[in-house]
What does this fold into?
Amino acid sequence: MNVERYACDACGTRLEGRFELGPLARLGPQETAFVELFVRVRGNLKQMERILEVSYPTLRSRLEAVIGQLGGPWDPQSPQ
Ligand SMILES: [Zn+2]
It folds into this structure.
């Protein structure tokens, strides 16, 4: 999935082209909300358990799924 057009809400200017999305922008709405919360609680999974009312294993599996969609765990041998 790529973006082909940007439009300015203020003045209506349109910019067309072929814009690559970064890995975060390619996440679905649920995964995006998950990552947003993860960052806003500074990665505190205990706090996320309380907010989302899900168990730790559920949270971990959702986190692993997002990590997979971002290209897998960080690899110091091939950082990107
Ligand atoms: Zn504008």
Notes: The chain has a mean pLDDT of 93. The chain is about 40% helix and 15% strand. Strands lie at 3-7, 14-19. The first strand starts at residue 3 and ends at 7.
